[in-house]
């Protein structure tokens, strides 16, 4: 991991029958994945991310019965996602930043490990699920690299972002109840978000941005009570943005930017019939308040000056000492002004 190794990946690595974890992340390997890797019958984690590999996505992974962590991101893998990759034991699948085409296969609903999110029944001690605390796997479900070791057993993630995947989001994907992170941004996915997306009740990260998705955003999205990151930008969604529950905290308008037919909070575009509604008025109260404040301010200047002037005149009329002091001061001030003018004229004439 993180070396300057290059050339082809040695075929001999595929004959290490008792190898648990192979991490070739961030090197300069090229060529194809050796077919001998299908002999790694004990492998649990395989990470060849961030290399220059160019190959069809491997279908022989179905022979790796214990494989749980498969990271092929940031290479030049191409072709359709093979159904053989839908192995029940998979809990982390990262195929991001490749040249994958075709649809997301419905068999993604067969990831039993993600459905059940099993974290119980494991042995206590330095080894969890076959990987020791010293083993590290690198993943970037939230847009930046993260490393996992002792927390591996709690990671359930699918990242297919930045490929050329098309078609619709399969409804079978909504059966992965234990999924924590789903990133399918930067593809050519179309159709609607499945209404049953609320079934992914443990989801913390959801990125569907930069696709061709359309239709209404399902209200069930508000059922995702653990959601901390949401990005639906640059699609073709329409209608009212759902509200309530966790979505109240996700109030950044950039989440929905690039969807010109969306309306309602947190963006400033009202939905039809909202202009007279109390809710929309509250959301735009600050905008209107400043204009109203200026109107009332200027309207009150005239009466205020008049009342002040009348009060001043009344004080001079009823309080003799004020009247004497005022006119005496005015008289002295007038004399000073007259003297100053006379001196100035005299100086000017000379």
TrEMBL record:
GO CC annotations, alphabetized: membrane
Origin: domain of life: Eukaryota
Subcellular location: Membrane
Keywords annotated in UniProt: Glycoprotein, Leucine-rich repeat, Membrane, Repeat, Signal, Transmembrane, Transmembrane helix
InterPro entries: Leu-rich_rpt, LRR_dom_sf, RLP23-like
SUPFAM superfamilies: L domain-like
Membrane-spanning intervals of the chain: 295-319
One Pfam family from the record: LRR_1
Membrane topology label: Single-pass type I membrane protein
Family the entry assigns: Belongs to the RLP family.
Protein name: Leucine-rich repeat-containing N-terminal plant-type domain-containing protein
Source organism per UniProt: Daucus carota subsp. sativus
Lineage, top ranks: Eukaryota, Viridiplantae, Streptophyta, Embryophyta, Tracheophyta
């Amino acid at each position: 991991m993180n070396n300057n190794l290059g050339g082809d990946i040695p075929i001999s690595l595929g004959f290490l029958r008792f190898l648990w974890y192979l991490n070739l992340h961030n090197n300069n390997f090229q060529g194809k994945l050796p077919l001998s890797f299908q002999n790694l019958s004990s492998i649990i984690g395989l990470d060849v991310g961030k290399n220059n590999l160019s190959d069809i996505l491997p279908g022989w992974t179905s022979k790796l019965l214990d494989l749980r962590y498969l990271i092929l991101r940031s290479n030049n893998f191409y072709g359709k996602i093979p159904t053989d990759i839908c192995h029940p034991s998979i809990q982390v699948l990262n195929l991001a930043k490749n040249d994958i085409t075709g649809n997301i296969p419905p068999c993604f609903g067969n990831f039993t490990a993600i459905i059940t999110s099993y974290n119980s029944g494991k042995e206590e001690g330095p080894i969890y699920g076959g990987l020791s605390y010293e083993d590290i796997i690198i993943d970037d479900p939230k847009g930046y690299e993260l490393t996992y070791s002792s927390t591996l057993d709690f990671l359930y993630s699918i990242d297919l972002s930045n490929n050329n995947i098309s078609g619709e989001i399969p409804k079978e994907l909504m059966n992965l109840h234990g999924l924590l992170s789903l990133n399918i941004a930067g593809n050519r996915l179309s159709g609607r978000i499945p209404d049953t997306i609320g079934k992914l009740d443990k989801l913390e990260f959801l990125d569907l941005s930069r696709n061709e998705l359309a239709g209404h955003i399902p209200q069930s999205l508000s059922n995702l009570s653990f959601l901390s990151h949401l990005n639906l930008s640059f699609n073709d969604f329409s209608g009212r943005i759902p509200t309530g529950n966790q979505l109240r905290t996700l109030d950044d308008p950039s989440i929905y930017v690039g969807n010109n037919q969306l309306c309602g909070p947190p963006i400033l575009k009202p939905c039809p019939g909202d202009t007279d509604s109390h809710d929309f008025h509250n959301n735009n109260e600050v905008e209107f308040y400043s204009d109203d404040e200026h109107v009332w301010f200027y309207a009150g200047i005239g009466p205020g000056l008049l009342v002040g002037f009348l009060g001043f005149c009344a004080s001079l009329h009823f309080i003799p000492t004020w009247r004497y002091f005022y006119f005496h001061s005015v008289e002295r001030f007038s004399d000073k002004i007259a003297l100053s003018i006379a001196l100035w004229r005299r100086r000017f004439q000379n």
